[in-house]
Structures are given as structure tokens and as C-alpha cells.
Amino acid sequence: MIALPEQDKVDAELIHAVARGDERALASLYDHYSHILFGLLLRILKDRPEAEDVLQEVFLQIWQRASSFDAERGRPFTWLVTLARSRAIDRLRSVRSRERAALASTAEAPEPVADASDEAVRSEQGEAVRGALASIPEEQRRALLLAYFEGLSQTEIAARLDQPLGTVKTRMRSGMLKMRELLRGQVEGAGAAM
Amino acid sequence: MGNDEHDKEALALDALDALDGEELRELQAHLASCTECRRERDALRDAASMLAYATPHVAPGGHVRARLLERVRELGPANAEAVAPASPAAQTRAEVSDAAQGDARVLEFAARPPSHSPVIPKWFALAASLVIAVMAVALAVLWRQNNDLRGELARSGAELNAERSRDAQQQEALERGREELQWARELAELIASPEARMASLAGTKDAPPAAHATVAYDRATSRAVLISSGLPPAPAGKAYQVWYIDGGKPPVPGGTFKPNVDSRGFLSDRIPADGLAAQTFAVTLEPEGGVPAPTGKMYLLSAAS
Q1: B269 SS3 class
Q2: A176 contacts B48? CB cut-off 8 A
């Protein structure tokens, strides 16, 4: 198992190689991250062909924009996940009405579960994240998940949960800070200096 | 903006892209000049991104990787002009050329059936090659027809409108051909694994006589690919669902699929952990989206292997 700061270094080198036009580096990134990114895209879009389409777009974007990655500003993993999530949420907004997405999400998003085939490092991180989520209060968790997986803004979350905006903001802040505290060991590879 | 509680709240919300309205504009203006807050926000974003690990990892279809790498080769080294997404027309053009390249590769595969794989019977490798070759030839014909049609259209601009619907039909057929070629590629990819196994599914009494399917599966990677033909179209709100069966245990639900207008169906599935020991495979007609236990008529069934 590769320690995280090491993994960050490897990933940053791969992204720099992609920026120089190295196809094999792109293939390596794909092989390493397509499963987790695809899981994320599926959770957001709840539609396999749509998620596959966005996954391809994301990696094409990586190919074309790798030179914009700045290791000073965060982990390579954050950069990849942020690209994927933004694309998925744009797609969600453009091809589906909010109502349809809301309907699908009330039909119960699958509970985060472990995948036995994941590499050890990923399982460990998955466990840490699920553990962190389980240890923050339910109302904070709900607000975080609505923001992250459904792309809702603070105002939309307040409306969805029928809570005052101020309450929602406080919950999200508390939840976010708690998550960071609990995951400190997982993200201290780069850029986590306070 | 100082480093007080209120600002921390804005940074935490921004890390989740949840800030909106005036607050978002204010924060953006502030971040443009405050390195300390920007660092804090980026660090919070590192933590927020870990939420991606809360979802199960899922394997995308093998065609995504293949198409990505093809597209990357077409684009060549990164350049700013290519960032804009391709227009639908450009996309179609790219796919036509994808398909043309696909021909050569699949024909090459068909000419050299995998001979190193002890678990795949020779007859199957041969049959699979044949299927792929037929698909490739069909695709080549469609492609040529499409090109001919384009040539005609170019010669006679006045007929453009009349021909447009025909062109659309040709495009649809081409698109179907291209899709089936992707299926063949996924199948080829799976059976290239030394651990791959095959099962043949025959129609039951409820299925048309010509209905049948083949499942290729690899327990090492939990991947399964099913290709069917001759199944009736799935009625509205219904789809065919595959089941993984191990002896007398309850069937383990697999993915769903709908045959295309040529009555060919395809499913690229990830076998659930409790279905990996399956010896038998079945296909039933179920509500779209699938069900946890079979409720509908069974259309296809394999002999226990």
C-alpha cells in the first residue's frame, strides 16, 4: 500500500506527464481513478450511460487542461474529483429537471457500502470517510450530502429541508469542520496546512 | 474580511460549492486578494473531496476507456482550441471515423481467435469471432452506404430536404452498428482474460424459438457480459433482467437490458459478490430498473455448468 503523500506525488507526476502529451500517463490515471470517479458520477447522475458519457468528458478535460493543475492549491485527487463532480452537476442541471432528480433521490440513494475489490488504500479511505460521516449529527450529514452529491446551494438546501437559512449554514459549517478534523490523517498529503 | 467565525462559515460552504448570491460574490472578491483564506478554502476542499470515497467504486464499461484513448489520439497533444466540447455534428463525424478504425481492429481480432485461453471452448471462440466479423462487415456496409448517401447529397443540393430523413435513418442504423461493435469489443476484452468462462442460454417455452444468449464472465474481476438475440422487444416499463444462480440458493439479481430494434440485447454487468459462485444463468422479464427476486416469466436459461 502506498502512503498518501507518496500517492499524491505519483499522481502529480502523472498529471504533469499528461500536460506534456503523454497518453500512457492519462491511461494510468484512468486505470487508477475511473472506478471511484465513475461511482461518484453514478451517484450524482443515477444513470449509467449518462455517467459513462461524463466520465469520458472528464478524462478528455484532464487531457486538455492538465497544465492548469497546480499542486500548491490542493491534492491531485481533489482536482480530479472536483472536475468530475462539477461536470456531473452541470449535466444534472442541464439534462434533468430538478423535480426528476429529487424524485430519484427520495427513492433512496444507495447507502455508501464497501467494495470488496478495491485496493487496500481505497478501502481504508472509504472506511475513514464512512466512519466520519457516521459520527457527525444526522442533520449536518444530510446538509453536506445534499450539497455534495446533488449540487444544491445553501438556499436550495434550506428550502429542501424546510429550515431557516442560518440554521443550514451553521450545520454545514460544523459538519464540514468536523469532517476535516476526522479526516485530517487522510488529507494531510498536501495543502492541508492551516 | 478577517478570519472570524462568519468567514470560516463562508469558506466551508464554498468548499462544498454551496455558497450563492451576494455572499458568493463577496467571498470571491475577498479570495482574489487573501492568500490565507484561499489556502483555508482549498484545504477544506481537500476534505470535501474525500466524500467521493463514501460511494461504492463502480467499473465503467470497457468501451469508455477505448473511446477515450481513440479520441485522445485524434485530438493529439492538448491545445486550448480543442477544449470546447464537440458540436453534435462534429461528434457524429468523429464517431463515423471511430467506426472505420474499429473495423480494422475487430477484423484483426476475428482473424486471430484467442488460442491461449483453456476455459473457452474453441467452438465458442470461433463463434464469437464469427459474430464479431459479421458485425464488422455489417458496419462496413452501413458505413459505405452512409458515405454513398453523403456523396449523393453533395452532388444534388436540391434533393437535400427529401434525403434528410433517409440520412437520419442511415445515421441511426450506423449508430446501432457502432453500438453493437462496442458490445463486441467489450466481449472481446472480457474473453481475453485467462480466467474468462462462458455459458450459453437457450430460450424457454415462453421465448421465441430463435431466442438465445451468451454470458461471458470472469470471477476474478466480477465482470460479466451478456449478448442476446431473438428476444421480443421489452414492453414499456419492463426490461430483461439477468440472474446468477448457485444450486438451490435464491437467484442473485443482476443488471437489466432492453433489446434494440434488431432484437439484439447487451448487458455489461458487475456480478454481485454473492453471485460469483453461480453455475446457472437466467433471464426474466421484470419491471424496468430490476427487482431483488424474480417475479416475471423466464425467457432464457443456461444448463448448469
Answers
A1: strand
A2: yes
Q: What is the pTM of this model?
A: 0.52
Cβ distance of B56 and A133 shorter than 8 Å: no
CB-facing half-sphere around the CA of A57: CA atoms within 13 A: 19
* B72–A114 C-beta distance less than 8 A: no
Q: Inspect the interface and report whether the beta carbons of B12 and A172 lie closer than 8 Å.
A: yes
Instruction: Report the C-alpha gap between B123 and A146 in whole angstroms.
Output: 52
Q: What is the pLDDT of residues A146-174, one digit of tens each?
A: 999 999 999 999 999 999 999 999 999 99
Residues of B in contact with A57 (CB under 8 A): 85
B76 and A43 in contact by Cβ < 8 A? no
> In angstroms, rounded to a whole number, what is the distance separating the alpha carbons of residues B10 and A179?
16
The pLDDT, as a whole number, for residue B228 is: 92
Residue B19, Ramachandran bin (φ over 0: left; ψ between -120 and 50: alpha; else beta): beta
pLDDT confidence tier of residue B180, bands split at 50, 70 and 90: confident
CA A4 to chain centre: 17
B19 vs A169: CA distance, rounded Å? 9
Mind telling me how many Å the CA of A102 is from chain B's nearest CA? 17
CA distance A37 to B60: 9
Q: What's the number of CA atoms in the CB half-sphere (13 Å) around residue B76? A: 4
Contact (CB<8Å) B18/A63: no
Smallest Cβ–Cβ distance between B64 and the set A52, A116, A151 belongs to A52
For Cα atoms B157, B158, B160, give the angle at the middle one, nearest 5 degrees: 65
Strand order in the sheet with B212-218: B252-257, B238-245, B280-287, B298-302, B197-203, B212-218, B223-229, B264-270
**How far, rounded to the nearest angstrom, does the alpha carbon of residue A147 sit from its chain's CA centroid?**
11
Query: If you compute the radius of gyration of chain A from its CA atoms, what whole number of angstroms results?
Result: 17
- B40: cell is 483555508
Interface size between A and B, measured as CB pairs under 8 A = 200
Contact predicate A179/A160, CB 8 Å:
no
Q: If you measure CA to CA, which chain A residue comes closest to B269?
A: A48
Measure the CA–CA gap between B67 and A76, rounded to whole angstroms.
Answer: 24
Smallest Cα distance from A60 to chain B, Å: 7
Per the structure block, which three cell numbers stand in for A9? 506525488
B240: β partners: B257, B285
The one-letter amino acid code at B244 reads Y
Residue B146 to residue B98: CA distance in whole angstroms: 14
Residues of chain A with Cβ-Cβ distance to B73 below 8 Å are 23
Residue whose grid cell is 440458493: B249
Sequence-ordered strand ranges (E) for chain B: 197-203, 212-218, 223-229, 238-245, 252-257, 264-270, 280-287, 298-302
Give the mutation candidate from B13, B51, B70 for the A interface (greatest A CB count, under 10 A): B51
Instruction: Flag if A126 and B9 touch (Cβ within 8 Å).
Output: no
Higher pLDDT, B265 or B122: B265
